[in-house]
């Protein structure tokens, strides 16, 4: 694949080009107060260019620097929002479905793991023709990815095969080697057009070498040292090991932060409300770690918290592959970072694997 | 109470459906009604007379709602539990001998059977409005018990504990407030009450340690959960860090 070179200013230039060229709204990570969120980016000054993030289990701090990874929110929050009004019913029982499509959207500066998460959603909801998802997904006219040459401490995308470099499902990718060298690559004909419009030069052999050294280092850092198949088979064997699952979830308080920040968690609850003379049906995300999950008329089929934590892990590594032939975990590490007590998914799978491997 | 007024005023037609028979702050004192369809009780019982009043109202009411943290959990008055009641009275009143009050504090369901609980200090007016609207259409709201954290995330709020190191009771507190405090960059102080599911002594102890590491000492933690979660907390406290 042909690589191109530019500087930090070219990222800003490309932001302006895609916005103008595709006549679209740009969504991505942006500064918000002292933190970062995923939202509508109004101007290039909001881009997290001079931002560094330190992330560890239960810890996230933003400072000035060069190593931005991601925030608690992800493209999920645009494509599959926390709360969606599904329809309204009036007193004559007429059903009104809400138009929920977006204006044309460009996802800008999202991460390879985010793209992998969108692929998961595409399969999950695409296969089932979920109109609420598909309407929003179809409005995405361009995807610009930032590769992670400086991955977070909790990231393990290399193990999951989802990063740290962009692999598929993107139009243009860039990687910050340093302030004066940013490597660009096109992933589609649209990407090629953007490269041409931005007047980028071809990268020299030296540029490519510097990029590849950092990329190899990033791959090494984001590798757990266990294969996903090993994780998968050992998890399958561990299902009835109550003692083990109680142990790995002993700090869990069932707050469901892991579910809320996971870019592929999609479980929802239907809530009915009354507004004026109309009944409104709303779908809202809930977490499988919440007590409500598994609470049904007549009883509760996952009353004990460890069974819900076990389900969360097994779903990502064992059940998603059975459903859609992809892992539900993209290795972004958000569940670990945003867990208020720092429960580490990497430790969980390592503990299970060390007991059941082979 | 302001939240009830706010709920009643939230939709023009709502007041047409209700005949308010007793509400000291907004109606004149009337005679004891013969029958009440929907009774909202605020506050915990702290005297024998109050217990009798609550029992009388239960007899004539079809549907009883314990409304607010005092009614549901006991409330800040539960802080006195475990201390000598005479000493507590003397702290507060110049003539404590005139005060006739029980040494314990009873959430409403310790005295009578309760059909629904709406926690919060104060309660969320949207929850009250939802109840009022659904009650007249002969349905009831379905509670979705989860932690405050989910509400933060749905509002797009960055976790104050993980991102700023602010001690926050959100992960162990029941949802329903709409994550008010974290919305303003403060930690949750648990006014909707501890979750009465998923927690046990060891989990609470570990969580309290986490808060301690962020600067909230154990006494402060204990005091806060005692004040806003007495009923649930009393299930745990015997074994907690003693």
Automatic annotation (TrEMBL), chain A:
Pfam families with a match to the protein in the record: Fer4_22 (PF17179)
Name by which UniProt lists this protein: 4Fe-4S dicluster domain-containing protein
SUPFAM superfamilies tied to this protein: 4Fe-4S ferredoxins
Cleaved signal peptide residues: none
GO molecular function: oxidoreductase activity
Residues annotated as domain 4Fe-4S ferredoxin-type: 243-273, 320-348
Organism this protein belongs to: Ignisphaera cupida
UniProtKB/TrEMBL annotation, chain B:
GO MF annotation list: oxidoreductase activity
Sorted UniProt keywords: Oxidoreductase
Coiled coil (residue ranges): none
Domain of life: Archaea
Pfam families in the record: Oxidored_q6
NADH:ubiquinone oxidoreductase-like 20kDa subunit domain location: 14-134
Gene3D superfamilies: NADH:ubiquinone oxidoreductase-like, 20kDa subunit
InterPro entries for the chain: Hydrogenase_assoc-protein, NADH_UbQ_OxRdtase-like_20kDa, NiFe_Hase_small_N_sf
PANTHER family cross-referenced by the UniProt entry: COENZYME F420-REDUCING HYDROGENASE, GAMMA SUBUNIT (PTHR42845), F420-NON-REDUCING HYDROGENASE VHU SUBUNIT G (PTHR42845:SF2)
Protein name per UniProt: NADH:ubiquinone oxidoreductase-like 20kDa subunit domain-containing protein
Organism: Ignisphaera cupida
Highest classification ranks of the organism: Archaea, Thermoproteota, Thermoprotei, Desulfurococcales, Desulfurococcaceae
């Amino acid at each position: 694949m042909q690589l191109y070179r530019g500087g930090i200013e070219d990222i800003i230039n490309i932001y302006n080009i895609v916005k103008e060229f595709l006549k679209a709204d740009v969504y991505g990570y942006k500064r918000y107060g002292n933190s970062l969120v995923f939202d509508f980016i109004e101007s290039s000054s909001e881009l997290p260019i001079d931002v560094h993030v330190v992330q560890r289990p239960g810890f996230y701090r933003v400072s000035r620097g060069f190593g931005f990874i991601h925030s608690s929110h992800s493209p999920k929050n645009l494509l599959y929002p926390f709360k969606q009004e599904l329809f309204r019913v009036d007193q004559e029982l007429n059903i009104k479905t809400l138009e929920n499509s977006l204006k044309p959207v460009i996802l800008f500066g999202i991460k390879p793991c985010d793209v992998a998460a969108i692929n998961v959603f595409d399969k999950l909801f695409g296969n089932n023709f979920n109109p609420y998802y598909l309407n929003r997904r179809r409005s995405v006219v361009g995807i610009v990815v930032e590769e992670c040459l400086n991955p977070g401490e909790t990231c393990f995308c290399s193990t999951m095969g989802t990063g740290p470099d962009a692999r598929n499902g993107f139009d243009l990718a860039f990687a910050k080697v340093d302030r004066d060298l940013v490597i660009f690559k096109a992933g589609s004909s649209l990407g090629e057009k953007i490269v041409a419009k931005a007047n980028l030069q071809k990268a020299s052999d030296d540029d490519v070498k510097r990029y590849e050294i950092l990329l190899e280092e990033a791959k090494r850092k984001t590798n757990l040292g266990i294969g996903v198949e090993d994780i998968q088979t050992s998890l399958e064997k561990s299902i009835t090991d109550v003692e083990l699952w109680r142990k790995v979830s002993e700090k869990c308080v069932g707050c469901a932060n892991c579910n809320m920040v996971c870019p592929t968690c999609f479980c929802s609850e239907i809530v009915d409300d009354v507004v004026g003379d109309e009944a409104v049906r709303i779908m809202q995300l809930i977490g499988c770690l919440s007590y409500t999950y598994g609470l049904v008329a007549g009883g509760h089929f996952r009353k004990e918290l460890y069974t819900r934590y076990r389900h969360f892990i097994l779903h990502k590594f064992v059940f998603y592959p059975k459903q859609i032939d992809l892992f539900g975990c993209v290795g972004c590490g958000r569940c670990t970072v945003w867990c208020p007590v720092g429960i580490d998914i990497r430790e969980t799978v390592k503990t299970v694997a060390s007991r059941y491997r082979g | 109470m302001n939240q009830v007024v706010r709920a009643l005023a939230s939709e023009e037609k709502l007041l047409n459906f209700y005949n308010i028979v007793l509400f000291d702050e907004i109606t004149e004192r009337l005679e004891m009604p013969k029958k009440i369809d929907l009774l909202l009780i605020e506050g915990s019982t702290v005297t024998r007379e109050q217990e009798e009043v609550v029992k009388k109202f239960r007899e004539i009411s079809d549907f009883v709602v314990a409304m607010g943290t005092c009614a549901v959990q006991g409330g800040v008055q539960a802080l006195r539990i475990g201390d000598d009641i005479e000493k507590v009275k003397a702290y507060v009143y110049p003539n404590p001998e005139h005060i006739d009050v029980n040494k314990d504090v009873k959430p409403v369901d310790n005295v009578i059977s309760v059909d629904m609980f709406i926690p919060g200090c104060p309660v969320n007016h949207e929850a009250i409005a939802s109840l009022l609207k659904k009650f007249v259409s002969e349905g009831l709201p379905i509670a979705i018990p989860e932690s405050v954290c989910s509400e933060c995330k749905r509002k797009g709020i960055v976790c104050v504990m993980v991102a700023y190191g602010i001690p926050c009771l959100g992960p162990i507190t029941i949802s329903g407030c709409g994550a008010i405090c974290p919305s303003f960059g403060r930690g949750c102080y648990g006014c909707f009450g501890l979750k009465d599911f998923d927690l046990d002594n060891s989990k609470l102890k570990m969580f309290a340690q986490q808060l301690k590491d962020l600067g909230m000492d154990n006494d402060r933690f204990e005091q806060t959960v005692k004040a806003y979660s007495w009923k649930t907390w009393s299930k745990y406290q015997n074994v907690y860090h003693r």
